[in-house]
Structure formats: C-alpha cells, structure tokens
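Final report, Chapter 2: Outcomes

The project's central promise was a pipeline that accepts a single protein chain and returns its three-dimensional structure in a standardized token representation, suitable for archiving and comparison. That pipeline is now operational. To close this chapter, we reproduce one record exactly as it appears in the project archive, with the input sequence first and the structure output second.
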Amino acid sequence: MTDHSSSFYRPGTAPPAAAEAPAARRARLSRFAPEAAVRAWLDGDFGFDDEDVLCDAIRRDPDVTLTDDEIETVFMNVFERGARPDEAPAVLTLLREAAQFRMP
C-alpha cells in the first residue's frame, strides 16, 4: 500500500485518480476550471506530481497570481482547518485574497 501521508490531498485518503494513467490524468486535470481544480485538490482527485497541473488550472482565475508554493501553502492551511470539497468556492476566494494581500 502506498503511503499518502506526505502528499497534498486530504489526509487519510488515497487519490481516486491514482488508477488513471498519468498522462490521461494530467490531461484531464489541465482542462479543469479554477473552482473544479480547487475541488479536485480538496477531494484528493489527483496523483503524485500533479500539483503543478492543478496550480496552472487554478491560475486561470485572473485574480489568483500565487506561485505553486504559495498555492500549496494555502491548501496545507485549509486542510489543517478541515476544509471539504464542497467548500471549493470559499477556498478559491481565499486564494484570490491571498494573492491580493501577499507580502512582497
């Protein structure tokens, strides 16, 4: 069994996308709208090393100008607070606000 404890999806869950071929999965994720990408991240619907594709999809929102590392930090923070996939709109708003108020 794979240890998923150090990845960026919901702790204690295996990614549903893990059974998908990596190239097909990345192609599917790359087509997501920003809110769908946030929901996929919150739901763990991605595989190892797919974070960059989700970050790119999230940055399709013109108000999200964060780096990959900054986006990942926001997700680590919302996971600590127990965010759920149905809270994707609120997390997207948080990403927009983090970009607006980021320190130089």
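Archive annotation: Residues 68-80 form the longest helix (13 residues).
This record, like all others produced under the grant, will remain available to the consortium after the project formally closes.
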